[in-house]
Amino acid sequence: MSEFAYLELSESEDGEMQLRRSGDGAKSEPLVSVKFSSEARLLLGDRAQDIARAMIGAGVQLASHQMANPDGGDDDHTTLH
Question: Is the pTM of this model over 0.85?
């Protein structure tokens, strides 16, 4: 795997948001996916896609931070609530 990769975020036919390396194609396994239940989709309404995008974006940002600081040194991101 190269050090840098272009990523693509897409939505599948069933509403699942999927993150893939650019050029991998829709048939490849996504690096990350977010799929909301029917109940969650009702609660989120038109914002479901934006929320999934934000969730995946936060994960990519944290993963990038971890790759840039493999020795740690930043404990701000270790507590999940």
Answer: no
Distance CA 44, CA 35 (A): 12
DSSP character string of 9-50: EEE-TTS-EEEEETTS-TTSPPSEEE---HHHHHHHGGGHHH
Give how far Cα 10 sits from Cα of 3, 23, 68, 72, Å. Answer: 22, 13, 26, 31
* 20-46 tens-digit pLDDT: 998 888 788 999 999 999 999 999 999
SS3 68: helix
